Amino acid sequence: MGIDDDQVNRQLTPLLSFSGDLVQPVGSVRLLIAFGVAPRKTMVYDQFLIVDCPTTYNVIVGRTSLIGIKAHLSPHMLLIKFPTCNGTCAIRGDQLSARACYATALKSASFKLPNETMPVQGIPNNIGPIDDPRDETPTP
Fold first, then answer.
1. pLDDT in tens, 118-140
2. What dihedral angle (degrees, nearest 10) is formed by the CA atoms of 47, 53, 57, 62?
3. What is the mean pLDDT of the chain?
4. How many other C-beta atoms lie within 10 A of the C-beta of residue 135?
5. CB 35 within 8 A of CB 19
6. pLDDT digits (tens, 9 = 90+) for 29-65
7. 30 phi and psi, to 5 degrees?
8. Closest CA relative to residue 62, chosen from 33, 41, 36
9. Residue 59: which region, alpha, beta or left (left: phi > 0; alpha: psi -120 to 50)?
10. C-beta separation of 90 from 78 below 8 A
């Protein structure tokens, strides 16, 4: 990304990933984010964690950035609106594109589960059907 090494803060504690794993961040960096396009554009700085783990996300914009630009969110409409010097800017999401990008990212990730089998011993071959207690009629 063209970030100088002296811009990266490397004094961080581990964090919990979305999958529940403990991840040690590589560092953090303060970057300028641009929302919208000229003439309806605004910019704000935010702190980002740098992690080295497989994910379908390039970046996650936090509440501090959204509050910084005074954004109004409508997740149902996939819409963000925020004020600029030249009027209100609206950024719309596209559900079909988002799903296609997500599916592509999952396919490109080389997550291969090991083909492992575990032998089970001591199970007789003559096991009959298991009675389901939900099949019984209640007694009055």
1. 444 444 444 445 455 545 555 55
2. -30
3. 78
4. 6
5. no
6. 999 999 999 999 999 999 988 888 777 777 888 899 9
7. -95, 120
8. 33
9. beta
10. no
